[in-house]
Amino acid sequence: MEEENELFEKFVEDNIMNLIKRLAIALFFVPSIIHIFFAGGIALSSFLSMVVFLQMFELREIFITKGLNMPRIVLPLSILVFFAAAYTSLNEVVLSLLFIFLIVTGVDILRNRLEGSFGRISASVFFVIYTSIFMASIFRIRLMDNGAFLIFSLMGMIWLTDTAAYFGGKYFGKHRGIFHASPNKSAEGFIAGILMSFIAAFIFGYFGNFTLLQTLSLAVSAGFFGQMGDLFESMIKRDADVKDSSNFLPGHGGILDRFDSLVIAAPVFYALLYFL
Q1: Residue 182: which region, alpha, beta or left (left: phi > 0; alpha: psi -120 to 50)?
Q2: Tell me: the pLDDT tens digits for 206-245?
Q3: How big is the CA angle at 132 (ends 139 and 248), to the nearest 5 degrees?
Q4: Nearest partner of 210 among 262, 157, 253, 134, judged by Cα
Q5: Global confidence as pTM
Q6: 86-108 pLDDT, tens per residue?
Q7: Distance CA 268, CA 271 (A)
Q8: Taking the domains of the chain in order of start, what are their residue ranges?
Q9: How far is 83 from 88, CA to CA, in rounded Å?
């Protein structure tokens, strides 16, 4: 009985400490991030470049557990690609990716590392696209007319979608395991997230004076592709047999865990806004 009480007290203590850590980080980071996104410009691009660097660091550490050791040089080079994608044209982005391909390939050739070279080169180029170019789309959206409200709407929509998906799955979820990347996610929760995204999109669209196409683009990007971003990161972590991308944010996991939905939803939203 005494042992059970001790275990219960430890459980309560751990959960309280975890909650305190989560609240402390939220109280510090949320106002700072809101200010940075409102400010835009070099403040936003510098913040996003730091996020890109940390995401690449986490991905590199995750894949080391799979025996796929990406060269360290990819970390600073990912920042170069981010700024190229944020501030320049497609030509410079292609050249920066070519530069990374040549550097990573050259490292393996000069070190005579033949085994696993294809995996290292492919992973390096792919994850630079996944982090640097996809995250640069956030900055590109901010540069658009009404860009601040557009990007805050997307971020708010992702949070509402995740919340609706969680509670929809918790109270109505009967068909689980449809996504092996996230077995606890249910079909009902996934649909609830999409439904919430469309409802909330029209509310945001009304206050932001969005066009119908902008409103629908917001709903699709957050509701469907935001959830796909979460599933993609879950697939990566499950493949590497890790729970969180890192413990960089105590109680919240890693940087990848915080930006997993946005890193897919943002480029889709930008593409829809740009081409439509």
Answers
A1: beta
A2: 999 999 999 999 999 999 999 999 999 999 988 888 888 8
A3: 95
A4: 157
A5: 0.88
A6: 999 889 999 999 999 999 999 99
A7: 5
A8: 40-143, 144-276
A9: 8
